[in-house]
Amino acid sequence: MLRIGITGxxxxxxxxxxxxxxxxxxxxxxxxxxxxxxxxNDLVLRQALQEAFGPEAFDASxxxxxxxxxxxxxxxxxxxxxxxxxxxPRVGHDFEQWAQTQQAAGAIYVIKEAALLYESGSYQQLxxxxxxFAPQPVRQARVLRRDPHRTPDDILAIxxxxxxxxxxxxxxxxxxxxxxxxxLIPQVLELDRQxxxx
Length: 198
What we know:
The chain is α/β, with parallel strands linked by helices. It has two domains: 1-27 and 108-198, 3-Layer(aba) Sandwich (Rossmann fold), CATH 3.40.50; 34-106, no CATH class. 56% of the residues lie in helices and 12% in strands. The protein is built from nine helices and five strands. A five-stranded parallel β-sheet has the order 2-3-1-4-5, with helices on both faces. It is globular.
């Protein structure tokens, strides 16, 4: 079974592409959503987070205190690296178990969607990588429409923390152009055809 990663900068449309793959009955693992679940439910990770960041890492209901953790790591690269070094391996373990379940169910290939595919090292678990590309002005406009609480400066700050589009493109095996000039559906259908024939 092929394991395909899909990544792209904020506003590139990687989630839209993943919904298209899902319509084609391709199992999709959303690493960002699963990371939240793993942080709340993985006992090994919970203990490590409490040891690293104190009991405030979880709220009274036992859920990760995302506001507190964000405040701790946002302006401290060392603390951010510490958080990622705890969370990413456990998410990788969760993906591995999920992928094995999908393989046992007969999946030909699966998709792992992750904004930080390269930064987390999780690309090493995958056979091929797709980058969803859109120019920065298009991405900014999309995020402003989608998240009206964000400012243009907020979006630029997020983009500044992500791997450059140039590097993502140079490392990708496939590129989906979601720039409002190329139709996305035919590109996804072509990749699906290729993956099913590999």
